[in-house]
Design a protein that fits this description.
With about 800 residues, the protein is α/β, with parallel strands linked by helices. About 40% of the residues lie in helices and about 15% in strands. A five-stranded mixed sheet has the order 15-13-10-7-18, with no helix packed on it. Strands 16-8-11-14-17 form a five-stranded mixed sheet, with helices on one face. A three-stranded antiparallel sheet has the order 1-2-3. A hairpin with a 5-residue loop joins strand 2 and strand 3. The longest helix has about 55 residues.
Length: about 800
């Protein structure tokens, strides 16, 4: 089935229960009027015979009633029905059945089977000679509101010429042409110009829509023609509603007379005719040059892909059913699930299929049942958003329709009407499916629990829970019926996060999906809404980062942009603490050798906190060794410590940058000494949490002095020239050691503590960690660096109101 249907397999494999054993005593029968000992088939009953290539160990036989319902019978029941011709009495029928099954059958046995089985199934007339009252099976995933367009005679006459298209040579040529057309359209030509032309000219868009609908009807011709080519007789063709879309259908029940190949050909006949439509439309495009026609080729491909899905009663479902020889797979769901339980492994119902067919059907059940259950749950949960979107879309289409109606543009008005219908159908379909599902489950549960008050009570509690769940999912709340926006991705993960957000559970913010987080807005500003949105800075954590406990990181809570990541040759230590009662350290140390004409490295340390009783410390130490001449030196050394919405919190940022110049490479001895010293510095970074805050500056200064002591003894050392400036401007001679001292001072208030600028480098190592928070707050302090280096430190303590969410720590280095 397409949005407009496919071959109809048995409308339900209402397999008859196992018949009474031959030779069993007949049950009591009511006195029959004259002639009642001659059973008569009900009007319209057709014997389809045993299914060739059946997946059952004992191949069942199929019978079709006058109302179109196909019924699966055991071989014995089918033999009895076949022997009933309206002239034979029970004893004569018993004689014919005995000859057919190869064992003795008594008239009383036949009478029991006729009364208890065949009349119950509506295959025989009642004892008084009247036709039985027939009731078709009503599967949940069945075609609804059927309307017959052509009777069987018209169908056979109309589709007869198309059977010639299934000649093998014709099939090969058309399939090859279809593949060539699809490759050219989708891989070379593209559909952009076709889409633009169709929507730019409403007449062409209507033509595309009309031809797509006609192609759906032609799809059904394919099923009927394939059945006729194989020797079966197609039945009526018509239309109805399947799931949420209009659908065409063709009755090809008679194809069950065919072998497996013939049935599969019938199932695939509709897809084959879709391919023919695509080839014909390519010819039309070639003759007219209308690119919009190419959209019809795309719709044929989309229909074919969807038709092959074996989950619902599309063509792929019927192909799987006919390949396995199991006419109605949905009737095998319950027996298959029960057969997975150890206590039912040897049940007769679990062993009716051949081993290979049972394996295929079990796999299908294990895939389909979870997917259908998940789809149903997601359909219910997403319905408010879909309904809200449909309502907003219908309102826009209606407004445009009124404008175009006033302009007298009839074609544009028709496009709007079709758009409104297409928007409304899915919403109405969801309501129909949910209402039928609830009704079916309620009625079935009520009947199955009759006489079992405890079970009925539990079922009642479950029903209350379901109603409460529907109420929770569909009850109007802020944002529940919000229209879907263009920026939303609409993935399954987004749907789950949206559900968690409505339940009050915290969900992280990510691009294109709804989540919860904190944003900074000016005091007194009107809060934004969906109808009146406002710009706000809401930063999200870097991908792949998590809090120490593995949970998602919080959003950016500070009233300024997050520091940009370091570039090539830069160092950055960034400690962001938003968790109460913790200390967070971030360290970035780097030793860089520069031999280019330009030195523009940056060294940054940022310590940011928004929490209570917490601490954030960032230390960045960068050493840049310039080998040779550098004509431009513009280093930057930056430190910033910020407390925002903090109570009893300490932040300290220390950025130290040392830039020296050598006339050439270091000697082997100096290189070994420097490597040994740098190993000690790296170890210091690993254990920096054990160093008191007031000693960080002195420890870093000591390492600076040791580095300078090693370099000064090397023959390549270049003494700083007099008058060198910390700005790193270009010089004609060899650059000198430059240094700057960052600003000093910090105040116990919310805001930035301080920053400084100097030269820079590329980091070679990072370290992050957490430790217990200090019991109190520390004073702000800054110190100056020696003449051969630059330091910028700032620490801030403050105690305004607090709010905490989590930890963010990153120490990023780019060699």
């Amino acid at each position: 089935m397409t949005p407009f249907e496919g071959p109809s397999a048995p409308a339900g494999s209402d397999a008859a229960p196992a018949p009474a054993a031959v030779g069993a005593a007949p049950g009591p029968t009511a006195p029959a009027p004259d002639g009642s000992d001659v059973p008569v088939r009900a009007d319209g009953v057709q014997l389809l015979g045993t299914v060739p290539g059946s997946g059952y160990r004992t191949a069942p036989a199929l019978v079709r009633r006058g109302d179109g319902q196909t019924i699966q019978l055991t071989p014995l029941l089918y033999a009895v029905l076949e022997a009933v011709d309206g002239e034979r009495a029970f004893d004569q029928v018993a004689e014919a059945v005995g000859a057919a099954v190869g064992r003795q059958v008594r008239a009383e046995d036949v009478e029991t089977l006729c009364d208890a089985k065949l009349r119950t199934l509506g295959l025989l007339r009642k004892a008084d000679g009247s036709d039985p009252q027939l009731k078709r099976s009503n599967p949940l995933l069945a075609l609804r509101f059927r309307y017959v367009v052509t009777d069987p005679e018209v169908t056979r006459r109309v589709t007869a010429p198309f059977a010639l298209l299934f000649a093998p040579v014709v099939v090969v040529l058309l399939v090859a042409a279809f593949l060539a057309v699809c490759t050219w359209v989708l891989m070379h030509k593209g559909l952009a110009s076709a889409t633009h032309q169709a929507f730019d000219q409403p007449a062409l868009l209507l033509a595309v829509f009309a031809l797509t609908v006609v192609s759906a009807g032609f799809h059904e011709f394919g099923h009927a023609a394939a059945a006729r080519y194989g020797g079966a007789t197609p039945g009526a063709m018509g239309t109805g509603l399947y799931l949420v879309w209009p659908a065409f259908y063709t009755d090809v029940t008679d194809s069950y007379r065919l072998g497996r190949a013939g049935r599969v050909r019938t199932d695939l006949g509709g897809l084959y005719f879709n391919a023919i439509v695509a080839v014909v439309m390519f010819g039309v495009w070639f003759g007219t040059g209308w690119d919009a026609i190419l959209l019809i080729i795309a719709t044929q491909v989309l229909q074919m892909v969807r038709q092959l899905a074996p989950l619902v009663r599309f063509d792929g479902y019927h192909v799987l059913a006919d390949v396995t020889g199991v006419p109605d797979l949905y009737h095998r769901i319950k027996p298959t699930l029960l057969s997975l339980l150890p206590q039912h492994w040897n049940d007769p119902e679990a062993r009716v299929l051949k081993p290979w067919a049972r394996a295929v059907v079990t796999t299908w059940v294990l895939v389909v049942v979870p997917m259908l259950a998940f789809s149903t749950v997601m359909m219910v949960l997403s319905f408010p958003r879909v309904a809200g979107t449909a309502w907003a879309s219908v309102a826009r289409q209606w407004a445009r329709l009124q404008v175009q109606l006033g302009d007298g543009d009839v074609l544009a008005v028709l496009v709007r009407v079709l758009s409104i219908v297409a928007i409304a159908l899915p919403v109405l379909g969801v309501v129909l499916i949910v209402s039928r599902l609830v009704r079916r489950v309620a009625v079935g549960t009520w009947r199955s629990t009759e006489g079992h008050p405890v079970r009925r009570g539990l079922a009642g509690l479950a029903a209350v829970a379901v109603v409460a769940g529907l109420g929770w999912a569909w009850w109007p709340q802020p944002g529940t019926y919000r229209p879907i926006q263009a920026y939303e991705r609409g993935t399954l993960g987004d749907a789950v996060n949206a559900t968690l957000a409505r339940s009050g559970a915290p969900t992280p913010i990510a691009e294109g999906r709804l989540g919860s987080g904190r944003a900074i807005l000016p005091k007194g500003m009107r809060l934004p809404s969906a109808d009146a949105p406002q710009l706000a800075v809401v930063m999200v954590p870097r991908p792949g980062q998590t809090a120490p406990d593995g949970s998602a990181l919080p959003t950016w809570v500070f009233p300024f942009d997050r520091p940009a990541p370091p570039g090539e040759g830069d160092t950055q230590a960034l400690a962001v603490n938003t968790t109460d009662g913790t200390s967070l350290y971030d360290v970035a140390f780097a030793l860089v050798w520069a031999d280019g004409d330009t030195v523009t490295n940056t060294n940054e340390a940022y310590a940011l906190a928004s929490c209570t009783d917490c601490q954030a410390v960032a230390v960045a130490f960068q050493v840049v060794v310039i080998v040779g001449d550098a004509h431009v030196a513009v280093p930057q050394n930056i430190a910033a410590a910020v407390n925002y919405s903090c109570v009893r919190c300490v932040t300290q940022a220390l950025a130290t940058q040392l830039v020296v110049t050598l006339s050439g490479p270091l000697s082997a001895q100096s290189t070994a000494q420097l490597q040994a010293l740098w190993a000690q510095i790296a170890q210091f970074g690993q254990s920096i949490r054990d160093v008191p805050l007031d000693q960080l500056q002195s420890r870093v200064d000591a390492y600076e002095e040791q580095i300078l002591a090693i370099l000064r003894k090397d023959p390549a050392w270049v003494e700083p020239s007099a008058g060198s400036t910390p700005t790193g401007t270009a010089t004609t001679g060899p650059p000198t050691v430059s240094s700057t001292t960052g600003p000093t001072g910090a105040t116990p208030s919310t805001g930035t503590g301080g920053s400084g600028t100097s030269t820079s480098s590329t980091p070679t190592g990072t370290d992050t960690g957490t430790a217990p928070a200090p019991s109190g707050s520390s004073s702000a302090s800054t110190t100056s660096s020696p003449s051969a280096s630059t330091d910028a430190t700032a620490s801030v303590t403050s105690s305004p109101e607090a709010s905490a969410a989590g930890d963010v720590a990153s120490a990023t280095t780019t060699p």
